[in-house]
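> call design_seq(struct)
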């Protein structure tokens, strides 16, 4: 009996070895993902450092030009260090800015194109620049991250109760986009973009709003002539000339009431519970019995009624887990990555991408009213149909599956996300 444990030792060793190999494979995959992420971060930092170095070099050149101009004026006998002469009613501080100093700050761009630097850019190049310098705040597809602004989508929503105001749906002049990006972006590194990088970013924003085709080249020569979607949605504010005079009348200060009475009640009361937040409830009070008010204050203030304690809600009954429902719910979360461009469900409309209701079993490129790229038009002519297999391949690498597609999404890396998103879209196809 003393030798019996040795029978299990080989099996135990094999099990331990298998577990070790499985753990090693999982750790290797995790480590590879982390290394890839760190390499991307290092690349971004190196790119930012290069841009900052170029900006510093340009600033040094500007300083040298200013110093040269100062030396030139000094050679003409102008004493740049002499105190400013006394003047009547003025401080006498500073001096007239030199042309080179004005030029360094004169970067504003007007709607007619004045102020645009020479340059060119397209959506293909802009996608890479945008991903590197803008996507951290505005998302890979200009859909906005957290509370940062959404730049794409929202077309034909300005008349809705909750309009989506983006560059594509709301801004009237493309010059404003260039001007703002060039002088203010990226966040924390304003002024580091070159003219070509700015043209490329603006082109990608236009492409994300489906306002240009993928082969459009944006330059300083055609930017001013580009018509934005909402160019006619703004009017000149003429109220100072047409309305203000009618408002400027002396108020009536005669026959004022000595006291006023409350004749209506507030519809809602807002309470602040001890645990924080606010709770709104209908006001049960009636106008009768409420205090009247005069210059000396209310005639009486009624004591507030104590808050009624609510009975504890019964515990929900345990439900049997529905794996299919869980998969659809997980796919709904994954769909948030798509929601900036696509809509699904009741009342879904085309956005910068087509609505996806009834996708499974639908012929590719056939949604009414949506402007498809040439590759989808060709797929429609061929009669290609979306099924689970083709959708999975497309979601993994869209631009490899349909070369030439306008969709700039790089694809889903996790197979579980593809499966759950397919289940969610399939649920909206039935």
């Amino acid at each position: 009996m003393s030798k019996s444990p040795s029978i299990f030792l080989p099996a135990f060793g094999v099990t331990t070895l298998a577990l070790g190999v499985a753990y090693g494979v999982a750790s290797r995959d995790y480590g590879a993902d982390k290394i890839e992420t760190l390499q991307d971060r290092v690349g971004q930092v190196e790119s930012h450092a290069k841009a900052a170095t170029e900006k510093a070099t340009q600033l040094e050149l500007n300083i040298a030009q200013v110093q040269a101009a100062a030396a030139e004026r000094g050679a003409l006998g102008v004493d740049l260090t002499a105190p400013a002469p006394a003047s009547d009613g003025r401080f006498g501080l500073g001096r007239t800015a030199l042309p080179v100093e004005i030029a360094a700050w004169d970067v504003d761009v007007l709607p007619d194109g004045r102020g645009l630097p020479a340059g060119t850019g397209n959506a293909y190049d802009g996608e890479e620049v945008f991903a590197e310098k803008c996507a951290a705040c505005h998302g890979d597809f200009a859909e906005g991250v957290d509370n940062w602004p959404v730049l794409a989508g929202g077309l034909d929503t300005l008349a809705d109760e909750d309009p989506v105001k983006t560059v594509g749906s709301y801004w009237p002049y493309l010059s404003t986009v260039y001007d703002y990006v060039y002088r203010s972006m990226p966040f924390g590194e304003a002024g580091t973009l070159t003219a070509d990088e700015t043209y490329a970013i603006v082109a990608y924003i236009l492409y994300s709003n489906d306002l240009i085709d993928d082969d459009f080249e944006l330059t300083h020569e055609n930017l001013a002539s580009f018509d934005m979607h909402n160019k006619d949605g703004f009017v000149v504010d003429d109220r100072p000339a047409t309305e203000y005079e009618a408002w400027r009348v002396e108020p009536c200060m005669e026959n004022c009431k000595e006291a006023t009475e409350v004749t209506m009640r507030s519809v809602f009361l807002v309470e602040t519970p001890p645990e924080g937040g606010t709770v709104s409830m209908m006001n049960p009070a009636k106008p009768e019995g409420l205090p009247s008010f005069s210059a000396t204050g209310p005639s009486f203030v009624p004591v507030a009624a104590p808050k009624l304690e609510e009975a504890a809600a019964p515990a929900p009954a345990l439900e049997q887990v529905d794996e299919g429902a869980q998969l659809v719910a997980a796919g709904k979360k994954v769909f948030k990555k798509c929601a900036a461009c696509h809509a699904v469900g009741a009342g879904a409309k085309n956005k910068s991408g087509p609505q996806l209701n009834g996708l499974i079993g639908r012929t590719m490129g056939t949604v009414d009213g949506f402007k498809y790229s040439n590759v989808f038009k060709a797929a429609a002519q061929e009669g290609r149909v979306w099924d689970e297999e083709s959708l999975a391949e497309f979601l993994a690498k869209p631009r490899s599956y349909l070369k030439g597609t306008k969709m700039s999404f790089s694809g889903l890396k996790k197979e579980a996300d593809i499966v759950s998103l397919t289940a969610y879209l399939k649920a909206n196809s039935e």
